[in-house]
Amino acid sequence: MNKALQGPEGRKFYGSVTVGQRGQIVIPAEARKDFAIAPGDKLLVLGDLAQGIAITTIPLLQKNLKGTVELFNSIQPDRNSDNKC
Prior knowledge:
The protein is an alpha+beta fold. It folds into two domains: 1-39, no CATH class; 42-85, no CATH class. It is 25% helix and 19% strand. It is built from three helices and four strands; from the N terminus they run ββαββαα. The strands form two sheets. Strands 1-2 form a two-stranded antiparallel ribbon. Strands 3-4 form a two-stranded antiparallel sheet. The radius of gyration is 16 Å and the shape is globular. 0% of the residues are buried. This is SpoVT-AbrB domain-containing protein. It comes from Candidatus Bipolaricaulis anaerobius. GO terms for molecular function: DNA binding.
């Protein structure tokens, strides 16, 4: 089994994954271990059309981005509103 390649400032390259027919991917075991990802955990998939996609854990994003919870709450539709999608 290949070890992740270590880069500067704690960055790692864990390898490549293949997207299955249902759009599923498998997160490499070393990445799951490093980020304490367990079965049933929810992950966020973020995207920027110019830079690509990123997958992160909610606690890690909350830790690293000030105001993340407030931002997500502000962009969610108001559940009590008559303007339901």
